[in-house]
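Researcher: Good morning. I'm working through a list of sequences from a screen, and I'd like to move beyond sequence-only analysis. For each chain I'm collecting a predicted structure so we can compare shapes side by side. This is the next one on the list. No need for commentary yet; just the structure.
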Amino acid sequence: MLIQEVAPRDGLQSEAAFVATADKIALVDALSAAGFSRIEVSSFVSPRAVPALRDAAEVFAGIRRRPGTVCVALVPNPKGAERALAAGADEINLVASVSETHNRANMGMSPAASIEGFARIMETVRGARVSTNATVATAFGCPFEGGQAADKVIAQVERYLDLSIEGVTLADTTGMANPRQVERLVRRTLAILPASRLTLHFHNTRGVGLANVLAAYQAGARRFDAALGGLGGCPFAPGATGNICTEDLASMADEMGIAIGLDLGALIALSRSLPQLVGHDVPGQVARAGRPCDLHPVPKVA
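Model: Good morning. Structure tokens for this chain:
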């Protein structure tokens, strides 16, 4: 199982208090040292739109590059792609919702217009040493429209592939997915895309994030986004909590004998430092309870 860490971007983008650039750099460096082969470092969007990530270029310039770790940047348009290339991003990620309403709320345009923009971004990065990924947001449901037809999701994946985008992420943007739905959509997607190019992005809004991971894994998926401590959330879905928690996912995989290639102890220690970084408690469970193998002394009987 490959876990891509998204806390530095997706986790921190919604934080009310600005996390200092030096602290972001230290977080990315610590995640890299814990063994991640993929980290979503930041986003080259307008500082007015996402002020929490206004220091994206400085963060990329300051991190230690570990051989074998792909540093990902989210970009919204050709200008953002140019900035990501200048910063040395190894991969760019593009996002369009399959839901018309959500995409207009999030991006200010229709999904079709967003994907037309992807073509211009692909032209911008043509010939550059950067890989590309595109996300189908609200793939498992929209907070405004409800469920989205699987045929519609698959059609958007196919449009991405027609643009020569290498990787695709199916995102449960507001935590509306259920395991049976996940299994069906993953199987359909894997019929047109190899598992090495498909990523699943789940939120734990309704408490079934890890169940959805397991359903996707059993259907053949092998790559998953997660955020340290369960940071993050969608600003356009009232009450939406964060991404699935990295250390909770890593612990579950480890207990099941699924190789993840990460230092779980380092992840837990890093997660326990997050409240000091962001100024509030985080929803991860393993960092609170400890791993299942962390046994306790027998209580004394009076």
